[in-house]
Amino acid sequence: QVKKAGRNSYQFYCSKQKDQSFRRLELETQLRKAISRDEFELYYQPKLELTTGKIVGAEALIRWNHPEKGLVSPGEFISIAEESGLIIPLGEWVLRTACMQLRTWQEKGIAPFEVSVNLSVRQLYQPNLVERVRMILEETRLDPKYLELEITESMMADSDHCLKVLNELKSLGVKISLDDFGTGFSSLHYLKEAPIDTLKIDQSFVRHCTVDGNDATIVKTVIAMAHQLNLEVIAEGVETKEQLIFLQRQLCNVAQGFLFSRPLPVKVFIEQFDEMEKVVSIHGLPVGIQN
Ligand code: C2E
Ligand code: MG
Ligand code: MG
Ligand code: MG
User: Fold this and answer.
1) Which domain of life is it from (predicted)?
2) Residue 176 DSSP class
3) Mean pLDDT per segment of 10 residues, for the chain of length 291 residues?
4) Which atom of ligand 1 is closest in space to residue 117's alpha carbon?
């Protein structure tokens, strides 16, 4: 009896593993075709300036319109794209599409704001990354100051190489933002050395900052430190008006989260623009009250 159960669970485990690696392989094959089949789409989530309530930026977040599965979120395929190297062409597609989109908005007079694009660590090891970014800026005729590249702390683990690439990117005139701040390999040394413009406080700290004393302290301290270091600071994952007010009181510059808007397809983003700009004045402290 026991033996049988044991064998069954062993088989179950095996086939489950097989299933998983098969699924990955299948996803990788489909991912490979997805670029040429035009199955990717960028969604945009606004970043709001807390003193004015205005949209000052938008983060481009990739979505995959899978022919059978429907909308697939990046959590399900970015790691596969990274491991397979597909992140290189995919990352380039994201950069070009986001820059083109912002140019289109600028031409329509919609956007005096910047667009942020997430970079994968693998891209920092792409030998010609800086050259490719330069070319995309040139092709799309986007002023580099409107492009922000979001990197994560783990990217600074190999400090020498990454610092060099970041400095080269920075010299193109783009901005660099440190995403998910506080969750990864973090060293204040790199914060001092790396050409960082913006600290992005991770949503895991923002989520409970109005109910958990430790999270409140972390958020306050990161904001204060960012200001002292002359960095911009943005809070991600803002979902409640209490969080918004907390952040305003701490003089956080910018916020992003479902309270203002979920990431949206281009067309909806533009339609919702005015509504999104009302959120801070509706739910937050009166705009213009802080400095
Ligand atoms: P991220 O860069 O930290 O992006 C923020 C994530 O938090 C997004 O998830 C966004 O939809 C979600 N989010 C925003 N506001 C809220 C909120 O108020 N509450 C909650 N619960 N979530 C919120 P998404 O779009 O699923 O992206 C997940 C991650 O995938 C991103 O994290 C980023 O690391 C990666 N990613 C997305 N697009 C790209 C891309 O084009 N290239 C690369 N390399 N990575 C990407
Ligand atoms: Mg990001
Ligand atoms: Mg983030
Ligand atoms: Mg995050």
Assistant:
1) Bacteria
2) E
3) 49 69 87 92 98 97 94 93 94 98 95 94 94 98 98 79 94 96 78 91 96 96 95 97 98 98 97 95 82 44
4) 41
